[in-house]
Amino acid sequence: MKNITDIKVVLFDKKAPDNEITAKLHGLKELTFIGYDDEKDLEGKIRELQNKGRRSKEVLILKEFLGRFFQHCPGSPGVICCNYRVINTCFNCFYNCAYCFLNSYLNAFGVVQFTNTENIFKEIDAFLDGADRELIYRIGSGEFTDSLMMDEVSGIGKKLIERYSARPNVMIELKTKSDNIGHLLQIKNMGNAVLAWSLSTERNVSEYEMDSATVYARINAARKACDAGYNLAFHFDPIIIYDRWEDDYKNLIGELFAGIDPGKVVWISMGCFRYSPGFKDVIRNKFPDEDMTAQEMFPGIDGKFRYLKNKRVDIYKKMKGYINCFTEKPFLYLCMESGDVWETVFNRRYSSSEMLEKDFSAHLKKNFTLEGNIK
Question: Among 163, 243, 286, 346, which is least packed, fewest CB within 10 Å?
Answer without folding.
Answer: 243
